[in-house]
Amino acid sequence: MAKDFFSEGERQQIVDAIKAAELNTSGEIRVHLDKTCPEDVLDRAAYWFEKLQMHKTEQRNGVLFYLAHEDHKLAVLGDVGINQKVPDDFWNSIKDQMIADFKEGEYAKGLANGIIESGKQLKAHFPYQSDDVNELSDDISFGS
């Protein structure tokens, strides 16, 4: 099962990175983990983006990190609000950084680093507001 890929400590490391990244922004970050990805990785990430209702944030500034660990597939998907603000190659550069960690077997570290980097861009374009509410769960979601 996908849930078994990370140890409890690694799951906590990822959730802690989400919480830290979201402290300084109104943006929302989620991580979804599948064991396999039976289709195009961006299509699958888009499916989970909608299923997790990430498109329903007030400022359309959600970011999904999608990983299918057995198939070695990764996607980072930002909503329209954040995509209008970041450079065209931003998500690919985040993925490249993460893949470097993944190649060393450091999957939790790679995800955490990618989340923190995304948080920096979210902070720049969507700073924390005093009335900000956490619109989406910080927990990792798991598929098959």
Automatic annotation (TrEMBL):
It holds the Pfam family TPM_phosphatase. InterPro entries: TPM_dom. Residues 4-115 form the TPM domain. Gene3D superfamilies: 3.10.310.50. PANTHER family: BLL7265 PROTEIN, UPF0603 PROTEIN YGCG. This is TPM domain-containing protein. The lineage of its organism: Bacteria, Pseudomonadati, Bacteroidota, Bacteroidia, Marinilabiliales.
